[in-house]
Amino acid sequence: MLWLHPIFQTLALLLSVFVLLLGWTRFAAVHLGRAGQFQWKRHVTLGALVLLTWLGGFFAGLGVAWLKWQAVFFTGTHHRLALAMLPLILFGLISGLIMDRSRKKRRWLPLVHGLNNALLVPAGCIQLASGLLVLLDYVLP
């Protein structure tokens, strides 16, 4: 059970890079004047999967910590960054839902949505590194 959290979070991180590339196609077309076919449904479906997995992983991480150590928020960088990512994940989900439910020409919401979610990818990379340190410090010794 303990290993499900890092496995699913890592898979979501890998998938997030693909979703970011899908979003880049739209950004490049709208803001850079480049040609490209934006795969709306694929971006929405996979993006929601990534964000929901990260959101679930936040709570699963809390649950795993509580079950294993009867404590939460003691993993330093790992838990602090998770707390910082939480509102970004929620904004990504909500803004994506708004744009998917009410499809129309927009300039700023997709830009802010993309920037927000683009910030989550390097944050996820740092989470991966700090999570490996948590495993080394607290699980594997």
What would you note in describing this structure?
With about 140 residues, the chain is an all-alpha fold. It has helices at about 5-30, 40-70, 75-100, 110-140.
Q: Which consecutive residue ranges, at least 5 long each, have pLDDT under 50?
A: none
Distance between the termini: 18 Å
Q: What global shape is seen?
A: elongated
Order of helices and strands: HHHH
Helix content: over 70%
What amount of the residues lies in strands? under 5%
Keywords:
141 residues; mainly alpha; 0% strand; elongated
Element layout with pairings:
Layout: H1 4-31, H2 40-69, H3 77-101, H4 108-139
Helix pairs in contact: 1-2, 1-4, 2-3, 3-4
